[in-house]
Amino acid sequence: RKRRNFNKQATEVLNEYFYSHLSNPYPSEEAKEELAKKCGITVSQVSNWFGNKRIRYKKNIGKFQEEANLYAVKTAVDAANVSAQASQANSPATPNSGGYPAPCYTPDGRL
């Protein structure tokens, strides 16, 4: 049988889960079912992917550290964006909230 890689989106979803649960990269059966649905693959494929990923990660942790950092940054940026959107939605309008920044003055009072 010919070997095929998962599509980029499926790999992205699996990697995101793996690196966000790096302290315990063993998804529950429910999580595996959810990941399988999201990726359009079977639960056994998800299990095999995680088994292989854990082995490869442990063998070459230095190489994968950069990948882990990229996913950590992505997760932090996503969380910051969600937080910023929520605070914008909940904050009352201020007198200068017309979408323009407040004018900046120099120390001598000029714009």
What do these coordinates show?
Residues 1-60 form the Homeobox domain. InterPro entries: HD, Homeobox_CS, Homeodomain-like_sf, KN_HD, TALE_homeobox. It is found in: Nucleus. By secondary structure, this protein is an all-alpha fold. 64% of the residues lie in helices and 0% in strands. Helix 1 crosses helix 4 and helix 2 packs across helix 3 (43-59). It starts with 7 loop residues before the first helix and ends in a 21-residue tail after the last helix. The model has no long low-confidence stretch (mean pLDDT 83).
User: Over all CA atoms, what is the radius of gyration?
Assistant: 22 Å
State the separation between the terminal residues, measured CA to CA: 71 Å
User: Beta-strand level of the residues, as a percent range?
Assistant: under 5%
Q: Given the C-alpha coordinates, what overall shape results? A: elongated
Would you tell me the structural class of the helices and strands? mainly alpha
The tally of helices reads 4
Low-confidence stretches: none
**Average pLDDT score:** 83
Overall number of strands:
0
Order of helices and strands: HHHH
Helix fraction? 55-70%
Q: Main beta sheet: strand number and arrangement?
A: none
InterPro entries: HD, Homeobox_CS, Homeodomain-like_sf, KN_HD, TALE_homeobox
Biased composition (Low complexity): 83-95
Domain Homeobox: 1-60
Region (Disordered): 83-111
